[in-house]
Amino acid sequence: MAYYLRAFCPGGPVPPLATLLAWAAEHGVRLWLDANAADSDPMAADWAEAAVCYATDRRPLRLTVDRDDGDAESLVRTEVAEFLEAVAATPESAARLFVAAHLRQTRFVVACRLPPDSDEMAYRAAVALLDYFAERCGGLVQADGEGFYVGDEVILPLHWEE
Question: Please, which of 48, 112, 142, 146 could form a disulfide with 126 given CB 3.0 to 4.6 Å?
Answer without folding.
Answer: 112
